[in-house]
Amino acid sequence: MTTADPLAGETAAAELVTALRDSGHTVATAESLTAGLVAATIAGVPGASAVLRGGLVVYATDLKHHLAGVDEQVLAGEGPVAASTAEQLAVGARTRCVADWGLALTGVAGPDPQNGIEVGTVYLGLAGPGHTEVMRLKLTGDRWNIRFTATRAAVQELLRCVRGHSPTR
């Protein structure tokens, strides 16, 4: 699959679209830190409409609850940048957009720390058929580098999950 989109071309997005299509699966995103960059990257691949259900841009903390269904107590207690928040965002993307896989990113791109959380701290949540996981990333660089590196990691990790999952639903 060829792509002229510079975002998709610098990630494994084309391979992800192929893997999702071959498995008969779909994906939806809930993005805070990346503000839709993951969905835009996947959409840059020709044929992405067969697998990309949509996405939620939940930059504001209250939208993480209202749009993605993150528990208000989790947001109040652990905050918007936390493993439990990323997990609930991924599950929310999956359920609210009726997709097989939900992918979520929340973190701090800088330039300043947020509520004591260091710049470059990112949580990536993945939720799929019988599978949920969260990973903490520690990224470096300016805002763009952190956001794009998180996007690249999210695409790569979802590809790993889709390839490791049985193609049967």
UniProtKB/TrEMBL annotation:
The record, for InterPro entries, names: CinA-like_C (IPR036653), CinA_C (IPR008136)
Signal peptide stretch: none
Residue limits of the CinA C-terminal domain?
11-161
Pfam family name, one: CinA
**SUPFAM superfamilies linked:** CinA-like
What is the official name of this protein in its record? CinA family protein
Give the organism the record lists. Answer: Nocardia speluncae
